[in-house]
Amino acid sequence: MTLKYQSQTYQTDLHPMSIATGDFNRDSIIDLAITNFESHTVSVLLGNRNGTFQIQQILSTGNGSGPQKVVTTDFDNDSFLDLAVTLSIEKRIVIYFGTSETNLFHSPPYNFSYYAYRYPPDLIEVSDLNLDGFVDLIVTQNANMTNIPKKLICFLNDGSGCQFKIANYFQYYFEDTENIIDIVIGDFNKDGIGNSDPYTGLTRTGMTNEYPSKMIKGRFNDDQSDDVAVISFRLNTLQIQFGFGQGNFFTQIYLTDIYPTSMAVINFNKDGIDDLAILHCNGTVSVFLALKIGILDRHYLSFSNYTTTNGKCAQSLKVIDLNQDGRDDVVFVDPEMNVIRLLLGSPCDE
């Protein structure tokens, strides 16, 4: 398999930042939702079966709101996907509830009662943390002050999608010299309860050897344990933390191309072991192939098509089969040109 950049791009609003993928209109085709920070909107692009997308539909988040992160899940169990969006300027979270195949989302959105109004929500993830059948919210708060502890807060969903309560046993405070850079959720202590352990990546001020910028979960060997991959934008490195139970890990470090910004698990060679697709600031996508014995092929594959020029890095890489051909495809945002870019998985002989 190889990845081929598509010449066609798809317009968003101003300064796209984050992508969520899902079947929003229930036609069994992948659609996209993108936050646009400078225009204070969310773009929804409905997918076509051949891996192309329709013209964006716009959801307003309100003037001066600053939408940043977006995740999708079915909060109210009505079989329609919903969108949760962090508004960094207004310091709140909104939820757009899915309504139908034609209207897509209810607007204006539901105003989620995010209680820490002094500081904006930063990262957002979803998982059924207490295993009650309802999807919960995990939110981080990084105050830009050295004397304020950083927080990871879990909000438990009562099933309506409109009522969440803070779980005291799922609330964590971190040192004021740390920033939470990402969250992954898995069964890291191998107690058989999957997707219930939040794992945070921290960056510490004053440290010279650790500058993590993105973290994901995967299985990069054949031991059936959840592993963690971490990239460093400043050090141009990929760190694989192989899990072996009780929350313990051993680490391997690899060099990447310059300025990695995002990554995702990709099934590149279909050997049952997760591989890694890494996006770089200039739009290059690198693929690291994982081996069953627990090492990555250092001769990684690189796919490049264009170069950014004004300092706005390509970001928010997602891997999913867009054209239903059984191969993984890649999508990411280009905030310089305000577009979505695609790489489609193709046979090597094409």
Automatic annotation (TrEMBL):
Domain of life of the native organism: Eukaryota
Keywords: Signal
Pfam families named among the record's database cross-references: FG-GAP_3
SUPFAM superfamilies xref list: Integrin alpha N-terminal domain
PANTHER family named among the record's database cross-references: ATP_GTP-BINDING PROTEIN, SENSOR KINASE-RELATED
Protein name: VCBS repeat-containing protein
